[in-house]
Amino acid sequence: MKITFRYRLLASYILLIAVPLLVLGALFYRTSLKIITEQAQKNVYEIVKKNNEVMDTKLRIVDQNSMSLFLDKDLFRIFSQLDPANQVELFAADRQVTAVLGKTFSQNQDIYAYQLWTSYFTFGQTLPQGDPVQSDIYDLARQAGGKLVWIPTYDFVSMFNQPYLQDGNLEFRYLFSATRVLDFTYLSNTKLEKMAAGVERPVLAISFKSEVLKSLYEDSIPGSSRYMVLDPQDKVVASSEPGAVAQTYKEAWLDELQQEKSGARRMTLDGKAVIVCFDRSEVTGWMSVVWIPEAGLVSSFVPVIRASITVMAVVMGIVALILAFFIAGKITKPIKRLLSAMRSVGEGDFQTRVDVVSNDEFGILTQRFNRMNDRIHLLVTENYETKLKEKEAEIQALNMQMHPHFLYNTLNVMNWTAIENDQQELSKMLVCLSNMLHYTSRKTWGAVPLSEEMNWMNNYFYIMSIRFEDKFTVEYDMDPRLFEYDVPRLLFQPFVENAILHGFDQTDSGGIIGIRGWINGRTRHYEVADNGSGMSQATVNAILHQKASSVGIKNTIDRIQMTYGGEYGISIFSSPGKGTKVAITLPL
């Protein structure tokens, strides 16, 4: 029985190389993975617990320092005697309060800002917080009385309602804070003095950058690990994924961990086996979670596996090369011929053929390649011709729909003008209409110079201005470079018609239609804007996506996309009472 090439190749390489390497590799991999996984689980868990202990120690120091302020003599005197209505006293008190807070907290490099908030003034370091007493931080401090409250990482812009900072590059964009109400007391001789009942107790706010926790974990856990610090409501305090900070992270496996205080377990996340270690802070109640792929742990054992397999591969490779010498000729020649033919086909030469010189698998493969090449050539030719005809027919059909649509509206306007104006302006209007009909009745509907399109629009605006008297005016702002390029015929007509007939239907005067054009990079931009009544988003969606709405606009969109491609087209921005803006994008 004749042994085919495929069986010879598979038998030699499987027996000589594949089977031994697979068996030994599997044994080494399983053994190393088990040992490393168990040890790594212990190490990572100890790292997580140690990080939590370090974090708790730092936060306890902050708690103790803040408690010392309750008995501060200077703060007691300042807030007991301060007149909130006296600006001079406020600024003098701010300097003194800042000095006391600096003496208490400035040595702690983890603290970013320390302040005292009252309803009438913010003492301490200055941040663009607006009125901080309107924030959730202030409310939580008041609700907790004198107890220290830890606020998980938040977006500074959202917390203090400062939208003008939204696009700024803020170093304090994400902070977490500790806050408490300070009810000062003072021990005078043997008597404990308390602040008067009518004096407002300030709120202490101590803020930390989220990078404090980030540096703590990234410097201590393996590089392939991921970490996350969550509060009991699953809000992310810190994470190896920057976009997750200050967001709510809901996952079923995290819900299981939230029920426990500390531990380590093996899980499958996103289809990968991972080790998960977690521990809860005794100060804040936040849970630190670290998970590391088991596959990444094998990297430290790879040198041992590589050395062992290399020795075996060298020995078996020598034997394999001796056998491969005898079959090399049968492998290289047909493969080279096929590769050369495939390269020619890849460059578009579908006439390439390969001679069939054997009856084995390579001979069959060569025959199939030749048949496939013939079929591809035929399909490409047929598909190209079919698509070309379909596109030409569709563009022609869409263009033909434009004639009755705008002619009906224009003639209707002329009829009303003749009735209302006693035919005094009819001569001028007929001249304009004649120019318009000549422009739109051309046999070809290809692109036209922008100057011709603008001339047509001027005729159209004249007729409409006579019909609607002084209801609207037109303003142009067109980059002169745009006149070097052609545009689809009647590009602006459907949009200015909608502005006049619908946007200004409730307006007697003062309507403005602005037509602008500019070039940005390799793209032309045109804009048709009005200050009319506008429309709802539902109406905009209907115009853009429903065939029954605004035939003229829908056809204009289709003509642009079929002529220039799907990345170009039209966008409509409008809202009731605020006018409408139509943005058109075309390539250079």
Descriptive account of the structure:
This protein has 588 residues and is α+β, with helices and mostly antiparallel strands. Among the domains are: 57-212, Beta-Lactamase, CATH 3.30.450.20; 350-399, no CATH class; 444-587, Histidine kinase-like ATPase, C-terminal domain (Heat Shock Protein 90), CATH 3.30.565. The chain is 51% helix and 20% strand. It contains 15 helices and 19 strands. Strand 5 and strand 6 form a beta hairpin. Helix 10 (361-421) runs antiparallel to helix 11. The longest helix is centred in the N-terminal third of the chain and has 64 residues, at 5-68. 26% of the residues are buried.
Characteristic key phrases:
single chain, 588 residues, alpha+beta, Beta-Lactamase, Heat Shock Protein 90, five-stranded antiparallel sheet, 15 helices, 19 strands, 51% helix, flat
Layout of helices and strands, plus pairs?
Blueprint: H1 5-68, H2 73-81, H3 87-105, E1 111-117, E2 122-124, H4 136-144, E3 149-155, H5 156-159, E4 174-181, E5 185-188, E6 191-194, E7 203-209, H6 211-218, E8 226-230, E9 236-239, H7 252-258, E10 262-269, E11 272-280, E12 287-293, H8 294-297, H9 302-346, H10 361-421, H11 426-440, E13 448-449, H12 450-467, E14 472-478, E15 486-487, H13 493-503, E16 511-520, E17 523-530, H14 537-545, H15 551-564, E18 569-574, E19 580-587
Parallel strand pairs: 14-16
Antiparallel strand pairs: 1-2, 1-7, 3-4, 4-7, 5-6, 8-9, 8-12, 10-11, 11-12, 13-15, 16-17, 17-19, 18-19
Helix pairs in contact: 1-9, 9-10, 10-11, 10-12, 10-15, 11-12
Domain HAMP: 329-381
Subcellular location: Cell membrane
GO molecular function: phosphorelay sensor kinase activity
